Amino acid sequence: MAWEPTRFAGVDRKVLYQEPSGRETTLVRMAPGAKLPKHRHVGLEQSFVLEGTLVDDDGPCTAGNFVWRRPGSVHSAWSPDGCVVLGIFEAPNEFLP
């Protein structure tokens, strides 16, 4: 299964499972310094960091750790050293201007 580029520089993904409703399980790979801009979680998001560090407004989440975001939460995320994250999403994120 190949990595698919996203619209965000340095961010690739592998969709492992997806439903027509938008619910999906995805591997996300971020290169060092890559960023996900400000976005709103439409549904619950659960993320387990497999490698590296994922940072958001609440601080870092390192390999072997889990973080979740409730529906309606807004934040941006980045990776200083690159990371691979297993994400489970109830609905697609809404990226904000």
Attribute tags:
single chain, 97 residues, mainly beta, Jelly Rolls, ten-stranded antiparallel sheet
Tell me the layout of helices and strands.
Elements: E1 4-5, E2 11-18, E3 24-30, E4 35-40, E5 45-56, E6 59-62, E7 66-69, E8 74-78, E9 83-89, E10 94-95
Antiparallel strand pairs: 1-2, 2-3, 3-9, 4-8, 4-10, 5-6, 5-7, 5-8, 5-9
| CATH H-tier superfamily | Jelly Rolls
Under the CATH scheme, the architecture is Sandwich
Question: What amount of the residues lies in strands?
Answer: over 45%
Shape: globular
Low-confidence stretches: none
Residue-averaged pLDDT: 96
DSSP summary: helix tally: 0
3D architecture notes:
The protein contains no helices and ten strands. The protein has one domain: Sandwich (Jelly Rolls), CATH 2.60.120.10. 0% of the residues lie in helices and 59% in strands. The chain is globular. The mean pLDDT is 96. Strands 1, 2, 3, 4, 5, 6, 7, 8, 9 and 10 form a ten-stranded antiparallel beta sheet that branches. A hairpin with a 5-residue loop joins strand 1 and strand 2. By secondary structure, it is mostly beta strands.
